[in-house]
Amino acid sequence: GEPGVPGVRGMNGVDGVDGLTGPVAGPQGASGPRGLPGAMGPPGYEGSRGERGAEGPQGKKG
Q: Which of 2, 28, 1, 4 is closest to 16 using CA atoms?
């Protein structure tokens, strides 16, 4: 069968907000957490097996 579809990739975390600018610049925000990895797709189905062919006719005796 065909292989399963790969899972969707997790999104990146949102960036932290920058600190406000005052007379002194505020601290920079922390980076957001990283997205989780996507799940793997299910395995593909196996193809069905072919049926056996019929036997040919028997030859005539000479």
A: 28
User: Is a pLDDT exceeding 70 seen at residue 42?
Assistant: yes
pLDDT of residue 55: 85
DSSP state of 21: B
CA gap 44, 38 in Å, rounded: 18
Cβ contact 44:2 at 8 Å: yes
Whether pTM exceeds 0.85: no
The overall average pLDDT reported for the chain is 76
Instruction: For residues 38 and 13, give the distance between their C-alpha atoms in angstroms, rounded to a whole number.
Output: 14
Of 37, 38, 44, 45, which Cα lies nearest the Cα of 4? 44
